[in-house]
């Protein structure tokens, strides 16, 4: 994702989140993240994307930062994170996969920077829901409908391939995605009965996963000072030219 496209996306995202439907999404997701991060312990936490919300506000970790292409303390792309390998205890990816140029590479980078037993939390739009139907009706135009909605089974497969074990899955946002606040309010009963009667058709999924490393046991020395987040950022490595590029350069 280019910086220009990232700036446009951030602006569209910010504008949509102030709408009645966007405010509804924020309310539900903020509650999910607050409940999850408060019970995850460690030293370093990073929120990647969706910076209009402070999803780490309930985290107990001493060092945290927020990053994105066009905003945040660290400006970076999700496919090439400027953090040391095995340095992050908690990584949040709110609606990051939908707008990544290579979502599988984004998850690979997430797995790389996580410490063994570190946690990743992902939220995304469920294509098999009324929100997915609205995306089709909208012609995949405008935020968030221009994003790619990945199904929960596909995300599960990707996580399994990367040795990221799913700890918890929740669904939310059962209201029909009306832009009109009056009609949105009339759907309040759907949130009350959604988890009981149709849990798989929530508008968003919320996944908590943990990095598993076979044969490794994590032991932290008592009293040992951990690296601060400001020391975790590393310079990106220069991509080595391939043999094809070398031959092309000689021609």
Your description of this structure?
The protein has 251 residues and is α/β, with parallel strands linked by helices. It has a single domain (3-250), classed as Rossmann fold. Helices cover 34% and strands 20% of the residues. It contains eight helices and seven strands. The chain has helices at residues 3-17, 20-37, 103-113, 130-137, 152-161, 181-186, 188-197, 243-250, and strands at 44-48, 63-68, 74-75, 88-94, 114-125, 164-172, 204-211. The chain has a seven-stranded mixed beta sheet with strand order 3-2-1-4-5-7-6, sandwiched between helices.
**What overall geometry do the principal axes of the alpha carbons give?**
globular
- Rg value: 19 Å
- Give the count of helical stretches: 8
CATH homologous superfamily designation: Vaccinia Virus protein VP39
**How many strands in all?**
7
Proportion of beta-strand residues:
15-25%
Going across the major beta sheet, what is the strand order?
3-2-1-4-5-7-6
Short structural summary:
This protein has 251 residues and is of the alpha/beta class.
Q: What brief labels describe this structure?
A:
alpha/beta; 251 residues
Give the topology, please.
Blueprint: H1 3-17, H2 20-37, E1 44-48, E2 63-68, E3 74-75, E4 88-94, H3 103-113, E5 114-125, H4 130-137, H5 152-161, E6 164-172, H6 181-186, H7 188-197, E7 204-211, H8 243-250
């Amino acid at each position: 994702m280019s910086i220009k496209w990232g700036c446009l996306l951030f602006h569209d995202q910010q504008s949509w989140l102030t709408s009645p439907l966007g405010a509804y999404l924020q309310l539900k997701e903020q509650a999910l993240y607050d409940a999850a991060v408060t019970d995850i312990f460690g030293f370093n936490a990073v929120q990647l994307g969706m910076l209009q919300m402070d999803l780490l506000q309930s985290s107990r970790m001493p060092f945290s930062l927020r990053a994105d292409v066009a905003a945040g303390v660290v400006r970076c792309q999700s496919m090439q994170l400027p953090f040391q390998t095995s340095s992050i205890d908690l990584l949040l990816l709110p609606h990051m996969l939908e707008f990544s140029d290579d979502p599988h590479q984004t998850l690979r980078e997430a797995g790389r920077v996580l410490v063994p037993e570190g946690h990743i939390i992902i939220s995304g739009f469920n294509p098999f829901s009324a929100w997915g139907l609205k995306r089709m009706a909208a012609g995949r135009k405008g935020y968030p409908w221009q994003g790619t909605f990945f199904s929960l089974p596909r995300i599960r497969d990707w996580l399994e391939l990367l040795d990221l074990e799913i700890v918890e899955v929740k669904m939310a946002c059962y209201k029909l995605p009306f832009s009109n606040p009056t009609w949105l309010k009339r759907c309040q009963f759907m949130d009350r009965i959604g988890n009981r009667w149709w849990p798989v058709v929530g508008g968003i999924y919320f996944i908590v996963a943990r990095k598993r490393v076979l044969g490794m046991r994590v032991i932290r020395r008592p009293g040992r000072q951990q690296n601060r987040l400001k020391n975790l950022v590393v310079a990106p490595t220069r991509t080595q030219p391939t043999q094809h590029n070398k031959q092309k350069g000689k021609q």
